[in-house]
Amino acid sequence: MFRDPSLPRSFPTLRSLCAVGALTLATGNGHAAVWCVASAQELYDALEAAAASTDASNTIRIREGEYQQAPFQNYALRALHSNQSTEVSGGWSGPTGQCTVQKPIPARTRVVGMDGITAFGVFTGALGSPVTNASVYVHDLTLSNAHFDTTMSLGACLASAVSTGNTAIFERIRIEQCIARGGTDVAASINNDGGQLIMRNVVVRNNVSYQNGGISISTTSGGSTRLSQISITNVRSLRTDADVSGIDLSGSTNSSVLLANSVVWGNEPNPAIPDILLRTDNISLNRVHFGKLAGTPGSNLSPGSGDPRFVAPGDPHLRANSPLVDSGAANPIGGGNGMYDVDGSPRTQGAAVDVGAFERDPDAIFINGFD
Asked: Which of 110, 150, 258, 285 is the most exposed place for a label (fewest CB within 10 A)?
C-alpha cells in the first residue's frame, strides 16, 4: 500500500503544487492526489483536503522548514475512506517551491503544536463510518510542543488511533521538546484497536509531561504492534508517583506487541519509576536495553542494562565504546530495521545493526551533544 521506503528518495519533477491545488494523476487503481506544501496554512489545507479526498492515494510532501500551528487549525491526518493510502513526509526541497527531492532527515522539517493542540494527529476511521484497508505512512518529521497545557488526556506531540483492519506506519520521527503539564498527558499516545502499527527509527527525548514524557501505546482487539530502533531518553514526569517515564505498553490477550533493537535509559531520576512498563504479559522484547523494567514480558531475548554510553545526556547518539554498537537483532519481525536511521544515515554500518534510533557512523564526531 506504500511506496517501499528502501527506494531512492528522489523523484522526477511533477510540478509545483500548493495545498489548495493538488495534482491528480490517473493510476491503475484510481486516482492519486499529490500536494507540495511550503507554509503552515498550506499544510493545514492539504491535510483537510486529503481527509475529504476519495482518491485511492493521497500524498502530502512538506518542504523543509518549521510549521507552527495556528489557533483552531489542528494538524491531523485522517484516513476516512476504505482502500485508501495516505503518505505525509518531510524533508522535501526543489527549485521555485517545488517538491522534487526528498532527504530522509527529520530534523529538516519541524511541526510545532500549541496550547491544547497536539502537534500532529493520525487517525484511521471515523465514528459511525467503518473504514477498512486504509493505510497511513508518516515519515521524516520532527514533532515539538512546548506549551501543551490542557486537562485532556492526549499526546502533546503525537496522538494516533488505528482502527480495526487499518495500518499506520511511523518512520524516522523525532519527538522532542514536548511539554505537557495537565491531565494525564504524555508526549506521544497511540491506541491500536485491531489494526497494524509499525514504528521504527524514532527518537523521543528531552520531554516533560504530567504522566509520562515518553510514549504510551495500547494494543487491543487483535491488533499487531511492531516497534523497532527506538531511543527514549531524558523524559520526565511531573508526578512523583508516576507509573513510568519512558514507554508504557499494554496488549489485550488476542493482540501482539513486539519491541526490538531499542534503548530506554536515562529518564526519571527517581529509581522507583521504571523506564519500561509492561501492563500485560504478552509483550515480547528482543534486544532491548533499559534502566529499569516493570512487568513481565512474554519473552525477553538478549536484554541489556547499564550505561549505554550516549554521547551526552539527552542525546542518544552512540559512542564508539557503546555496548549498543553492532549488537542489534537482524530483521526483527514485522517492523524491520529500515534503510536509514533517524539522522538519515544508512543502516547497517558495521558487523550488525546498532540498537536504538541512531546508527553510529565510524567517521562521525559528536561534540557536546551537537548532531
From this structure: 150
DSSP 284-331: EEEEEEES-EES--SEEES-EES---EEETTEEEEPTT-TTTT-PPSS
Full domain range(s) for residue 65: 23-318
pLDDT in tens, the chain (371 residues): 333 333 333 333 333 344 344 554 544 446 789 999 999 999 999 999 999 999 999 999 999 999 999 988 899 999 999 999 999 999 999 998 899 999 999 999 999 998 888 999 999 986 666 899 999 999 999 999 988 776 565 788 999 999 999 999 999 999 999 988 776 678 999 999 999 999 999 999 999 988 899 999 999 999 999 999 999 999 999 888 899 999 999 999 999 999 999 999 999 988 899 999 999 999 999 999 999 999 999 999 999 999 999 999 999 999 999 999 999 999 887 677 899 999 999 998 989 999 999 999 876 654 444 44
Indicate whether 112 belongs to any domain: yes
Cell of 38: 511550503
Q: Is residue 256 part of a domain?
A: yes
Q: Are 142 and 109 in contact (CB under 8 A)?
A: yes
* Distance set, CA 60 to CA 85, 139, 154 (Å): 11, 11, 24
- Answer yes or no: is 219 within a domain: yes
Give me the number of domains the chain comprises: 1
Report the half-sphere exposure of 205 (CA within 13 A, side-chain side): 24
Three-state DSSP at 279 gives: coil
What is the pairing mode between strands 283-290 and 256-264? parallel
Contacts of 274 (CB under 8 A, 6+ apart): 243, 244, 245, 246, 291, 292, 293, 294
The Cα–Cα gap between 211 and 219 comes to 19
